Amino acid sequence: MSALVNVPESAAPGEIVDIKVLLQHPMETGFRTGPDGKLVPRNIIHSLRCLYLGEEVFAAELFPAVTANPFFAFTLVAEMTGQVEILWVDDSEEEHRETRTLTVG
Amino acid sequence: MTPTRRQAIVMSLALPLVLRVRPALATPEEMQAEIDRFTGGAAIVEAGVELKIPALVENGNSVPVSVSAESPMTDDDFVEEIAIFNEVNPLPNTVRFRFSPRSGRAEAQTRIRLNGSQHVTAIARKSDGTFHSAQVNVIVTAPACRES
């Protein structure tokens, strides 16, 4: 599963930085009928979390109303150099992870 | 007492309404019920939240949404969560954002599906237990969920 995670390379201490995430996923709602006339089973990313320095700074709970290939933009406060982790889970309950380093100073 | 002919006709007209199958769509009542579950029935202040959605949407399959709530985002006073509700999609829940003081701002963007023109409501829960909301009326010319 591919993902685009945009974290600035560097920031000043205390600066509020923008994080952007674009995940590749069909976000099948479970309300659509397939060509065979049967409902296509639901398969969505239902949880997205952003950890910075190991602590949750932002999270989202997704419902079928979120578009295919979900996009999220949010912010966090730069404190010190460390990892920004994006974790997401879809209906297969498998956790995916992308990590970026934010250099602060 | 046997019904008169007139009563029998009225009853037969009313019957199809009772048997009508409810479409698989959320209704304003279901949105309200979900909002009550989120707030626990607490009062909601209609201020302090900004919900940005285009007023006229051509493609309901991808509608940009931006939501923010006024808050200093300190450890003592921050926005814990913002939930977005809709009244016409199959489910009243749309998306929920959870923040922490280290988010810096109670602000997030995403893209959602809207199955028709409707009101979309954002409700923020602050760390002091108060709820704040904003509502937008969206006109959708090509709804989502209609492709088979």
From TrEMBL, chain A:
<dbReference type="Pfam" id="PF08770">
    <property type="entry name" value="SoxZ"/>
</dbReference>
<dbReference type="InterPro" id="IPR014756">
    <property type="entry name" value="Ig_E-set"/>
</dbReference>
<dbReference type="InterPro" id="IPR030995">
    <property type="entry name" value="SoxZ"/>
</dbReference>
<feature type="domain" description="Sulphur oxidation protein SoxZ">
    <location>
        <begin position="8"/>
        <end position="99"/>
    </location>
</feature>
<dbReference type="InterPro" id="IPR013783">
    <property type="entry name" value="Ig-like_fold"/>
</dbReference>
<protein>
    <submittedName>
        <fullName>Sulfur oxidation protein SoxZ</fullName>
    </submittedName>
</protein>
<dbReference type="InterPro" id="IPR014880">
    <property type="entry name" value="SoxZ_dom"/>
</dbReference>
Automatic annotation (TrEMBL), chain B:
<dbReference type="Pfam" id="PF13501">
    <property type="entry name" value="SoxY"/>
</dbReference>
<dbReference type="InterPro" id="IPR038162">
    <property type="entry name" value="SoxY_sf"/>
</dbReference>
<dbReference type="InterPro" id="IPR016568">
    <property type="entry name" value="Sulphur_oxidation_SoxY"/>
</dbReference>
<protein>
    <submittedName>
        <fullName>Sulfur oxidation protein SoxY</fullName>
    </submittedName>
</protein>
<keyword id="KW-0732">Signal</keyword>
<feature type="signal peptide">
    <location>
        <begin position="1"/>
        <end position="26"/>
    </location>
</feature>
<dbReference type="InterPro" id="IPR032711">
    <property type="entry name" value="SoxY"/>
</dbReference>
<feature type="domain" description="Ig-like SoxY">
    <location>
        <begin position="37"/>
        <end position="145"/>
    </location>
</feature>
